[in-house]
Design brief:
Blueprint: H1 2-23, E1 30-37, H2 40-51, E2 62-65, E3 68-74, E4 86-92, H3 96-105, E5 109-116, E6 122-127, E7 133-137, E8 144-152, H4 155-166, E9 169-173, E10 177-182, E11 190-196, E12 207-213, H5 217-226, E13 230-239, E14 245-253, E15 257-263
Parallel strand pairs: 1-3, 4-7, 8-11, 12-15
Antiparallel strand pairs: 1-12, 2-3, 4-8, 5-6, 6-7, 9-10, 10-11, 13-14, 14-15
Amino acid sequence: MRGFIRSLLCAATVMALAVPASAQSVTLPYDHIHLNVPEPAAGVTWYEKNFGGMRFDEAPDRLMFGSTRLIFLRRAGADPSTGSSIDHIGFSYANLDAKMKELETAGVKIVQPARDVAGLFKLGFVEDPWGTRIELVQDPELLGLHHIHLRAPDTEQMFTWLLEKFGGQRMKLKGQIDAVKYGAPNFSSMWILVQRGESLPSEGHAVDHLGWRVADLNAKVAELKTKGVKVTSEPRPLKLANGTTIYYAYVEGPAGTKIELVQR
């Protein structure tokens, strides 16, 4: 009987592992976030001053946070990120009280002062001059650019879609918040959180779209088409300021979330 029970348990374990493995894609490294601003140079300067991103030679309209780019698109009159399918982005600091005081002294708009959330971490909210809502958390396990917070009527649909298309590790942030974590060798980790709520498509809002890195763009786009994903822009080349040519395409996720795929 003991051997029979052991066999049943082993079979159940194999089945449990096989189901997600068959549906989930290989994890793609997270690549960038695109923000809409009237003047990209002003966006670069503001985030560099207040959040410490690094300029690099790829192009003058972007900053690097770890291995993740913040890229600034020229667009006046973008709608605020709050209420869009990409509601806000998050940064983590070892001493949140000190960071919030620093930002307040610099004249940054404080939306919600720092507060402790039991069992989670200390957090607060600010807003950039162009309508991007920014959450600040005190999470020593991942400092710097920390997470992206999506909004969708059906959170489980969003999580399932992300796992099926871009892989990732489904888990709970601090054991409390449902999330997908993206990470790969030589790439920074990034949390994707999803809150339940009605939302508007992200394009044209302060946080315009998200970006994942792919090794073979044509192959990935072809794969996504077989999975019924709406491709809004076919693969095309783009020559950057430093002479490098990349290839990119756009797809649409749940709740109208605009997503870029890039081959560097």
